[in-house]
Design a protein that fits this description.
With about 600 residues, the chain is an alpha+beta fold. It is about 25% helix and about 30% strand. It is built from nine helices and 24 strands. InterPro entries: Cytosol_ACT, HOTDOG_ACOT, HotDog_dom_sf, START-like_dom_sf, START_lipid-bd_dom, Thioestr_dom.
Length: about 600
């Protein structure tokens, strides 16, 4: 880890730094106690403002820009790092190091004279690490226009005086937005941990031979011609108060050599569009020499991936270099109308060059999956997303995060109450959602185990005829083919292909979660014997109330074909929901007793 302080925009990036206590920029980060209001996007802090929130506004000066008069990405990364680290240290009360940063997609460029507004706040604190969310926008002072630039999530680790980890106090979310981010932070953390495995798995199933793309009238450029190597001496202005190199400074140097490598391929001025998730692997201090290497790994039709590596060594060259960081940056070349230009092809070097070429293609596929599934709003994700091994992590993330988002909504209204069963509704622009809950005399873990197996649902839900386990993805994700009972108003029964994702609590106070959503599988296409149904977001949340009791809640975003049935129950013309949930309780209690007898 690199002790220092920085953070970056939107995707899956990672690096390490240590506590920044201030900024040398013309404008400082705004503290919660400041009474002066900043007009525009950063104005008027609310009385319930998150105590970890940091706001920074920077005027883009000519010294911050490139030859086109646009803010350099390296400078932006420095500012993001400063704001995010201040937020992390505000919660931890001690120096922090940046452990990881999610992928960043830069939506727009920023011109000289415009203002960069950065907002950072801690979303959730785990044991010794915390997730910081960062939002970056720009403001045009002449027109008053505001526009989003990127959104990022960074992970920081708190460190004590001797570098030991510090146990963090929990963070209690207040607003609906904070509750959603707090809940989904655990799922984002899980996704980061399996990121490398996703790439390895995809490569293991891809052909080993490197097939070069052909483009009419374009000769392939040897990748070796794009190679760049540069050295930087770390001086006191490049480091924080503890003498550790700023992560933002390292990223700025890496972005510089990556831009040169990209320019050597296209013989034009490229624009950085995205940075892949990355991690700082070791520290760098004042006096270190940083060797930065970059090369174009692969060039697609309208974009190219540049790989960058940073290594550090001291005055003694005999000591081996320390690997500080590796990053992958995606560049495009834009014409005068802002449209991407077609790029030359790259001919990789044999051996490592071909490996990097293949890995770049795999990373592009993974990036597309993430943007298609993870980065979209829930209403923008197609219902039945095609399932395959390469996007399983992101579909699972989307499945669980969608349910957690629904659970965290603030405007649930009590629609009916019959005995112990309570029904709530949530009316939104495009959806009518309902929640049914009751307390059950069963341990939360037992209820979780029983309710997460769809093969047993027919024991209490009369609408289920059968459920076949089609694929056991891993311990937490399964795909089922579900067949419903034929209703009198239908000519044939419905069937569903459902991804079931289950999660145990990440920390005290979290519920057990079982999330359902539709997917498509080539092995189970729609057939003439069934009407293929779909579910967008549904599932169970189970909260422990004591060692022997738990609160079980079922959530569902009603699809149009299901809406009439839902509203009939909501307005009290049917008690089917209530009866089904009571049957669920009886099934849970019966299986609890059976388990006790077997033991």
């Amino acid at each position: 880890m690199v002790k220092e302080n920085i953070v970056v925009p939107e995707e899956i990036l990672s690096f390490c730094c240590n506590g920044l206590q201030g900024s040398t920029s013309p404008l400082r980060a705004q503290e919660p106690g400041d009474r002066e209001e900043v007009p525009g996007a950063m104005a008027s802090p609310s009385p319930t403002r998150n105590p970890t929130e940091v706001q920074m506004s920077q005027l883009v000066l000519p010294c911050h820009t490139n030859h086109r008069g646009e803010l350099s990405t390296g400078q932006l990364l420095k500012w993001i790092d400063t704001a995010a680290c201040l937020s992390a240290e505000r919660h931890a009360g001690c120096p922090c190091v940046t452990a990881s940063m999610d992928d960043i997609y830069f939506e727009h460029t920023i011109s000289v004279g415009q203002v960069v507004n950065i907002k950072a706040k801690v979303n959730r604190a785990f044991n010794s690490s915390m997730e910081v969310g960062i939002q970056v926008s720009y403001e045009d002072l002449c027109s008053g226009k505001h526009c989003s630039i990127c959104k990022a999530y960074a992970t920081f680790v708190a460190q004590g005086p001797s570098g030991s980890k510090v146990k963090l106090k929990p963070l209690t979310p207040q607003t609906e937005e904070e509750k959603i981010e707090h809940s989904i932070a655990a799922e984002r953390r899980r996704m980061r941990l399996v990121h490398k495995d996703t790439l390895k798995d995809l490569l293991s199933r891809s052909p080993r031979e490197t097939e070069l793309e052909t483009r009419d009238g374009s000769a392939a450029v040897p990748a070796e011609k794009t190679r760049v190597e540069s050295v930087e001496l770390v001086l006191p202005p490049h480091a924080n108060h503890q003498g550790n190199t700023f992560g933002g400074q390292i990223m700025a140097w890496m972005e510089n050599v990556a831009t040169i490598a990209a320019s050597r391929l296209c013989h034009a001025h490229p624009t950085l569009r995205a940075i892949e998730m990355f991690h700082f692997r070791g520290p760098s201090q004042v006096g270190d020499r940083l060797v930065l290497k970059a090369i174009v790994n692969n060039a697609f039709k309208n974009s190219m991936e540049v790989g960058v590596c940073a290594e550090a060594y001291g005055q003694e060259m005999s000591i081996s270099r320390r690997h500080i960081n590796s990053a992958f940056m995606t560049f495009v070349v834009l014409d005068q109308e802002g449209r991407p230009c077609t790029l030359p092809m790259v001919a990789p070097e044999p051996g490592d060059g071909e490996r990097r070429y293949r890995e770049a293609s795999a990373r592009k596929k993974i990036r597309l999956d993430r943007k298609y599934v993870v980065s979209c709003k829930q209403t923008e994700v197609p219902l039945s997303v095609p399932w395959d091994q390469s996007n399983k992590v992101y579909l699972s993330y989307n499945n669980v995060s969608a349910l957690k988002t629904l659970v965290a909504k603030a405007n649930w209204a009590l629609a009916s109450e019959k005995g112990k069963v309570r029904m709530y509704t949530l009316e939104e622009d495009k959806f009518l959602s309902f929640r049914i809950e009751m307390s059950v005399h069963i341990a939360a873990g037992q209820a979780f185990s029983l309710l997460s197996d769809l093969r047993r649902r027919h024991e209490w839900d009369r609408h289920y005829a059968s459920a076949e386990l089609v694929q056991q993805v891993d311990d937490d994700d399964m795909i089922y083919h579900v067949v419903s009972q034929k209703l009198s108003s239908e000519n044939k029964p419905q069937d569903f292909v459902i991804l079931a994702s289950r999660r145990k609590p990440c920390s005290k106070g979290d519920p057990y979660v079982v999330a359902f959503r539709s997917v498509t599988l080539p092995t189970h296409p729609a057939t003439a014997g069934f009407t293929r149904g779909e579910t967008l977001c549904s599932g169970f949340c189970i909260w422990p109330e004591s060692e022997e009791t738990s609160k079980v809640a079922y959530y569902n975003q009603a699809m149009p074909g299901y809406l009439n049935y839902v509203t009939t129950n909501v307005v009290g013309l049917s008690s089917d929901f209530c009866a089904t949930f009571k049957a669920c309780e009886k099934c849970l209690l019966k299986n609890k007793e059976d388990l006790i007898v077997r033991l």
